[in-house]
Design a protein that fits this description.
alpha/beta; three-stranded mixed β-sheet; globular
C-alpha cells in the first residue's frame, strides 16, 4: 500500500520527488481522482487553497477528475476511482469525510483499489487514514464532531497532525500538541507525527519516512 500524507498537498519539490519515487514513474499524463468531500463541508475560503492544489496538480501534467462522494451513488463514483492512478483527498472537515467514506460504500473497496493506486491526502484527507479522527490532539482543530464516529480508516498505525504553526490553526503548536499527546498515547499508544505545511509522511508498505522542507516532530 502506498500513501502520501501531506499537510498542504504537493507544496514543494521534495514532496513532488517523493511522489514520483512511490509511483516509480513520471507524473505527466497520470490520472487523478480529486475528492472534494471534506472541503465542501466547510465552504468559504476553503475554495482558495483547493484551487491552488488543483492548479499545482494541473501544472504537473496530471489529468484530473473532480468528485464529491457525498450524495452520489457508489455505482456512479466507483468507476471514476477505478479510472484513476492517484487518489487526492482534499482537506476540510475530517469527521465529515470519514462519515462519507463509510456511508457511501467506498470504504469496502479501498483495500482492493490501493493495491494498484496511491492515496495522497491533504490535511483531513491524511488524518482520515489514521486509527482515530477524534482524539486529544485532533480535537485541537475545533471541528464539529457531534454525532460522528471517532474511528479512522486505520490504514496507518500512527496519528497525523497537519498545519503545525499555521496561522489559521492557532492551537496547532508544539507545546499544545505535546501536552495533548500524553492523553492520546495513554489511550491508543500510537506514535504521533506533527507536520507543517512543507512536509509529508511517505508510506510504502511497511516503510515509513518523513519528507520535509520545514518543521516536524515525532512523539
Amino acid at each position: 500500500m502506498k500513501l502520501l500524507l501531506t499537510s498542504a498537498g504537493i507544496s514543494n519539490k521534495t514532496i513532488e520527488d517523493e511522489l514520483k519515487k512511490l509511483l516509480g514513474k513520471e507524473l505527466n499524463g497520470l490520472k487523478v481522482l480529486f475528492c472534494t468531500t471534506a472541503s465542501n463541508y466547510e465552504g468559504g475560503d476553503m475554495s482558495e487553497w483547493l484551487i491552488d492544489d488543483l492548479q499545482k496538480l494541473k501544472s504537473l501534467g496530471l489529468k484530473i477528475d473532480i468528485c464529491d462522494i457525498n450524495g452520489i451513488s457508489k455505482e456512479k463514483f466507483l468507476p471514476r476511482f477505478e479510472w484513476a492512478d492517484i487518489f487526492f483527498f482534499e482537506g476540510g472537515n475530517t469527521q465529515w469525510l470519514r462519515k462519507c467514506i463509510k456511508n457511501s460504500g467506498l470504504e469496502a473497496h479501498i483495500p482492493e483499489l490501493l493495491k494498484t493506486r496511491i492515496w495522497i491526502g491533504a490535511s483531513a484527507g491524511s488524518c482520515v487514514l489514521c486509527p482515530t479522527v477524534s482524539n486529544s490532539c485532533q480535537d485541537l482543530f475545533d471541528e464539529n464532531i457531534d454525532g460522528y464516529s471517532t474511528d479512522g480508516l486505520n490504514l496507518v498505525d500512527f496519528q497525523f497532525i497537519p498545519h503545525l504553526n499555521n496561522e489559521g490553526f492557532p492551537k496547532i503548536r508544539f507545546e499544545n500538541l505535546e501536552k495533548a499527546s500524553k492523553n492520546l498515547l495513554e489511550i491508543d499508544g500510537k506514535k504521533l507525527y506533527i507536520i507543517d505545511d512543507n512536509g509529508a509522511i511517505s508510506v510504502n508498505d511497511t516503510t515509513i519516512k518523513v519528507v520535509s522542507e520545514g518543521k516536524w516532530y515525532e512523539i
